[in-house]
């Protein structure tokens, strides 16, 4: 009962925050509880009978976590997770407040959590995860993570706390090096992609430092084919087909990460058929290839968070997409961070918007992309974009950064994963 007062205060703050800002303010209760009860978060996360599973890395955390949760639940395991993708400490605490009892207990066999690499490193010494999954090391959020080696060291602080398994991408050399140097008690479980998949992605998969030679250390789980929404994976010598929530090899890699992590977490209970069926059934995570009906128009949302995801998503757009809007917000502090991205496949953008509208419009112009209009007012740009008749080819497509994604969803009244998913 030691945390009961903090939990009560957090819930009062949550109600006030939601009253003050419907659909927002979700992190404020966590800030308050972490300030008055700093041990609440880690103690609660360490209390699940089936242990704690952490998914962290530069990119792919949200989609991987959602796939992993689906795969584990499909095996009959009760899972607590952070479904809002709130992956920093205050967000994680707010997620706990949704379900924790006054005794500081949460119903569930196991916790599966997406965790920001920086915040995770800060609390790592107090965590006792059973499994830690590492997605990749990329150039990402340069105002926070200015050096890839720094990111790898943060991931190592989290991974070394694992007691059973560290699941890592055997095609990311930073993670290979990390695995070779870990001193904790956990075994290393590796997954990877085939040479054919790499060859089909000539720009690469965004890893900050891909191995100069093909690594063959994947422990029985290898992505072997990607074709639109269809993919195949080899598990211990047997091939399985499955469906992706959105186009792109990066989503297939997320699925394989989730599959390898599910095997590590479930042990002998793991069934790849059950896991892949569950992964095939999930809808896209916020903005990751999400298709929604807004004001009678079908719109595809495409979230870009770093140069690698920007490039992979640009390359994955349906050829001939005629109506594209791009919105880059205040989360991209230095827009030159995106300049390595070749945006020329976009060909024609109707509206460039967001607080960095002129910056992204300039990059598009240098890449030879025609831009019809620059409109910094995101709400006005969205309204005008949605007024346009449906295109003859493809869907209306909005490419946005995380800040613009949140503002877009708020402006359009989309408070859940999708108003009308397709």
From TrEMBL:
The keyword Nucleotide-binding applies. It catalyses: beta-D-GlcNAc-(1->4)-Mur2Ac(oyl-L-Ala-gamma-D-O-P-Glu-L-Lys-D-Ala-D-Ala)-di-trans,octa-cis-undecaprenyl diphosphate + NH4(+) = beta-D-GlcNAc-(1->4)-Mur2Ac(oyl-L-Ala-D-isoglutaminyl-L-Lys-D-Ala-D-Ala)-di-trans,octa-cis-undecaprenyl diphosphate + phosphate + H(+); beta-D-GlcNAc-(1->4)-Mur2Ac(oyl-L-Ala-gamma-D-Glu-L-Lys-D-Ala-D-Ala)-di-trans,octa-cis-undecaprenyl diphosphate + ATP = beta-D-GlcNAc-(1->4)-Mur2Ac(oyl-L-Ala-gamma-D-O-P-Glu-L-Lys-D-Ala-D-Ala)-di-trans,octa-cis-undecaprenyl diphosphate + ADP; beta-D-GlcNAc-(1->4)-Mur2Ac(oyl-L-Ala-gamma-D-Glu-L-Lys-D-Ala-D-Ala)-di-trans,octa-cis-undecaprenyl diphosphate + L-glutamine + ATP + H2O = beta-D-GlcNAc-(1->4)-Mur2Ac(oyl-L-Ala-D-isoglutaminyl-L-Lys-D-Ala-D-Ala)-di-trans,octa-cis-undecaprenyl diphosphate + L-glutamate + ADP + phosphate + H(+). It comes from the Bacteria. InterPro entries: Lipid_II_synth_MurT (IPR043703), Mur-like_cat_sf (IPR036565), Mur_ligase_cen (IPR013221), MurT_C (IPR013564). Pathway: Cell wall biogenesis; peptidoglycan biosynthesis. One of its GO terms (molecular function) is ATP binding. Residues 303-383 form the Lipid II isoglutaminyl synthase (glutamine-hydrolyzing) subunit MurT C-terminal domain. Its EC number is 6.3.5.13. Transmembrane segments: none annotated. Residues 55-260 form the Mur ligase central domain. GO terms for biological process: cell wall organization; peptidoglycan biosynthetic process; regulation of cell shape. Keywords: ATP-binding, Cell shape, Cell wall biogenesis/degradation, Ligase, Metal-binding, Nucleotide-binding, Peptidoglycan synthesis. Gene3D superfamilies: Mur-like, catalytic domain (3.40.1190.10). The keyword Cell wall biogenesis/degradation applies. Forms a heterodimer with GatD. Belongs to the MurCDEF family. MurT subfamily. The lipid II isoglutaminyl synthase complex catalyzes the formation of alpha-D-isoglutamine in the cell wall lipid II stem peptide. The MurT subunit catalyzes the ATP-dependent amidation of D-glutamate residue of lipid II, converting it to an isoglutamine residue. This is Lipid II isoglutaminyl synthase (glutamine-hydrolyzing) subunit MurT. It comes from Glaciibacter psychrotolerans. The lineage of its organism: Bacteria, Bacillati, Actinomycetota, Actinomycetes, Micrococcales.
């Amino acid at each position: 009962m030691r945390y009961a007062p903090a939990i009560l205060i957090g819930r009062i703050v949550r109600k006030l925050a939601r009253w003050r800002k419907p659909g927002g303010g979700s992190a404020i209760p966590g800030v308050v509880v972490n300030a008055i009860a700093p041990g609440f978060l880690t103690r609660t996360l360490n209390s699940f009978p089936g242990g704690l599973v952490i998914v962290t890395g530069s990119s792919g955390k949200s989609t991987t976590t959602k796939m992993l949760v689906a795969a584990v639940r499909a095996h009959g395991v009760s899972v607590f997770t952070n479904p809002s993708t709130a992956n920093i400490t205050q967000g994680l605490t707010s997620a706990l407040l949704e379900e924790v009892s006054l005794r500081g207990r949460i119903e569930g066999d196991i916790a599966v959590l997406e965790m920001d690499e920086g915040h995770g490193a800060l609390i790592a010494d107090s965590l006792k995860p059973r499994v830690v999954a590492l997605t990749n090391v990329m150039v990402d959020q340069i105002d926070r993570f200015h050096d890839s080696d720094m990111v790898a060291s943060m991931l190592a602080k989290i991974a070394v706390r694992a007691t059973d398994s560290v699941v890592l991408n055997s095609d990311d050399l930073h993670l290979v090096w990390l695995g070779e140097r870990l001193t904790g008690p956990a075994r290393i479980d590796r997954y990877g992609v085939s040479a054919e998949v790499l060859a089909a992605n000539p720009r690469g998969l965004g890893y900050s430092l891909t191995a100069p030679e093909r690594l063959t250390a994947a422990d029985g789980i290898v992505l072997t084919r990607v074709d639109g929404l269809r993919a195949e994976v080899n598990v211990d010598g047997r091939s399985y087909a499955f469906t992706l929530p959105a186009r792109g090899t990066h989503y297939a890699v997320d699925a394989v990460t989730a599959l390898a992590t599910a095997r590590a977490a479930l042990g002998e209970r793991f069934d790849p058929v059950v896991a892949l069926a569950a992964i095939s059934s999930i809808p896209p995570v916020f903005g990751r290839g999400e298709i929604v009906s807004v004001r009678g128009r079908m719109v595809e949302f495409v979230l870009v968070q770093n140069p690698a995801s920007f490039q992979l998503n640009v390359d994955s757009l349906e050829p001939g997409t005629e109506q594209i809007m791009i919105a880059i917000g205040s989360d991209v502090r230095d827009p030159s961070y995106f300049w390595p991205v070749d945006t020329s496949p976009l060909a024609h953008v109707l509206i460039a918007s967001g607080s960095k509208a002129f910056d992204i419009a300039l990059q598009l112009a240098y890449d030879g992309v025609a831009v019809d209009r620059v409109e910094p007012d995101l709400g006005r740009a969205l309204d005008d974009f949605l007024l346009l008749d449906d295109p003859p080819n493809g869907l209306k497509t909005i490419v946005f950064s995380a800040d613009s994604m949140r503002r877009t969803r708020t402006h359009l009244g989309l408070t859940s994963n999708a108003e009308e998913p397709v």
